[in-house]
Amino acid sequence: MEAQLESLRSDAIAAILACSGESELEQLRVRFLGRGGELTALSDRMREVSKEDKPRIGKLLNETRSAVTTTLDERKAALVAVQEAGAFSGIDVTLPGTAFPVGALHPITQLMDRATAIFRRMGFALADGPDIESEWHCFDALNTPADHPARNEQDTFYMPDGRLLRTHTSSIQIRTLERVSPPVRIIAPGAAYRRDEVDATHLAQFNQMEGLYVDEGVTLGDLRGTLEFFFRELFGKDAKFRFRPHFFPFTEPSFEVDIQSAALGTDRWLEIAGCGMVDPAVFDAVNERRGGRVLDPEIHTGFAFGFGLDRLAMIMAGVPDIRLFTDSDQRFLSQF
After folding, report:
1. Are residues 33 and 158 in the same domain?
2. What digits encode the pLDDT tens for the residues 106-161?
3. 200, 315: one domain
4. Gyration radius (Cα) of the chain, Å
5. How far is residue 195 from each of residues 138, 248, 274, 320, 327, measured CA to CA in Å?
6. By residue range, what is the domain housing residue 219?
7. Helix, strand, or coil here: 101?
8. Half-sphere exposure of 159 (CA within 13 A, CB side)
9. 152: how many CB neighbours lie within 10 A of its CB?
10. Taking phi first (over 0 means left), then psi (-120 to 50 degrees means alpha), and beta for anything else, what does residue 162 get?
11. How far apart are CA 215 and CA 303, in angstroms?
12. Quick one: which of 60, 63, 250, 307 has the fewest CB in 10 Å?
């Protein structure tokens, strides 16, 4: 039996090395190692081997099986390598690969990130809050009277429990003042919701960025300097500004901000933001909720501002229809 194992080993290895294809190699595997194979048949004859010879013959049997198995694996790997080399033989690896489209941030997100970076340079921190708000955070704390048009169901999305989708991100300012004591310097970007008819300049959901700065000795000059610096960083050093008196329930005095810049491709004045000094009534409302006088109108002053990111993006990119930002048309978005 020892001679038979030696002969089988040499025959099997020679046949495997001479094999030229995977199907032929599989046939050899079955021939030598299969359930009815030659090596299996010799294994079955181990019962005929004397007790004294079994350790030696058993070891030789295992070595033969291991050698045949190893040769099969190595030959299969060699055949696969040859096959793969043939498949790639006609490929010029020095040619450029196939280009795949690469995505990018949405233009509104790009503008939000850029605006955030500018305000961070001026010391403003990023604040956030819930999209579903209470009336107190969205209106009452902001000195908005009960008969104000913004509180009408025709203008605002109300929930069955009386909560609403925030109509502006000013509610984030209130939530910040509830938690933090002066000095407070934050920006609050995010979505806002109003029952506007969707057209070229209006959406039911749009994006805002609002800011708040409260401390001792904050002045209207600080407000103007902050906004002029910010918009000049966006539109260029030649930008001109004018502040027109306006009315907002939560600021006094209040202003609309217009800009004129060659970068906009027109010499017309364009409205870009609203702002003002925080009304002391806002401080009083927050103090009442906090149960103290952390915000003292005799000591603290502040300013607030806000602008629509969608409108700002339209102005900067010359986009005529705000709906283009929500249509997910690759032909439009790929420009950015």
Report:
1. no
2. 999 999 999 999 999 999 999 999 999 999 999 999 999 888 888 888 889 999 99
3. yes
4. 39
5. 15, 20, 20, 21, 19
6. 107-333
7. coil
8. 12
9. 11
10. left
11. 9
12. 63
